[in-house]
Write a structure and sequence with these properties.
Structural class: alpha/beta
Largest sheet: 7 strands, parallel
Radius of gyration: 17 Å
CATH topology: Rossmann fold
CATH architecture: 3-Layer(aba) Sandwich
Number of strands: 7
Helix content: 40-55%
CATH superfamily: NAD(P)-binding Rossmann-like Domain
Number of helices: 6
Distance between the termini: 47 Å
Strand order of the largest sheet: 3-2-1-4-5-6-7
CATH class: Alpha Beta
Order of helices and strands: EHEHEHEHEHEHE
């Protein structure tokens, strides 16, 4: 088991990538703090892990609020004794162009998608430093942060920020033996914020199919385990080759 006796926090663990990460981590021996604002979704993931003999607990938390994050981190330590891994997965999208998006839309997407990663990383890193045992943080970005899009204005900006936020805190936390990396997925499973997977959704990658949540989860496991012990500050593309292709048709 790659994560035996380690404690992992996974945000947005009630669906899609986060759900698969939580379940995979549990099968690899981790004790999992399932974090989601949607209680029914979170309970589904918690129950699935326990049904397979794993150790998990749901923490219903608004990760865009500092006080709520601080309380949740304290509760996780109270329940499991420590924190070894953080996966910053939660996100929402606006799916609007510049001329359509409102100030309220912008603020909400930035707060949930970007600010949550700042808050979670800060509070969890403080705990990891206090423990003195190091740790791993894996952020979830998006190819939307690496290319222009006709819509999802705030989401694209937030995901672009995550790329350099990952590098920056990797530099800052490396002296504390905390490795920070990110994955950069493209059209994995159902769209952000939705439960339904549409197999007809157009994709543009080398494999000519949408990615599966378990494929992203395995990449996150790699970055959270000792398999990636010499990898730090990286944005690992899990996109079927999308960003390596010529998107212009030239």
């Amino acid at each position: 088991m790659k994560l035996k006796d380690q404690v992992a926090i996974v945000t947005g663990a009630g669906r899609n990538i986060g759900e698969e990460v939580a379940k995979l981590f549990a099968t690899e021996g981790a004790k999992v703090a399932v974090v989601d604002l949607d209680r029914p979704r979170g309970e589904r993931t918690e129950s699935a892990i326990k049904a397979q003999g794993g150790d998990a607990e749901l923490f219903v938390t608004d990760v865009s609020k500092g006080a709520d994050v601080a309380a949740m981190v304290k509760a996780v330590v109270g329940r499991f004794g420590k924190i070894d891994i953080l996966v910053n997965n939660v996100a929402i999208s606006d799916n609007k162009s510049l001329l359509e998006i409102t100030e309220e839309d912008w603020d909400r997407v930035m707060t949930v998608t970007l600010k949550s990663q700042f808050l979670m990383s800060k509070h969890v890193a403080q705990q990891m430093i206090a423990q003195g045992t190091g740790g791993k943080i894996v952020n979830v970005g998006s190819t939307s942060g690496w290319q222009g899009r006709p819509r999802a204005t705030a989401y694209s900006a937030a995901k672009a920020a995550i790329a350099n936020f990952t590098r920056t805190i990797a530099v800052q936390l490396a002296p504390h033996n905390i490795r920070v990396n990110a994955i950069v997925p493209n059209k994995i499973g159902s769209p952000v914020g939705r439960d339904e997977f549409d197999p007809t959704r157009p994709v543009m990658n080398m494999l000519r199919r949408a990615g599966r949540p378990d494929e992203a989860a395995r990449a996150i496991l790699f970055l959270a385990s000792d398999d990636s012990s010499f990898v730090i500050g990286e944005n690992l593309f899990v996109d079927g080759g999308t960003m390596a292709m010529d998107q212009t048709g030239a």
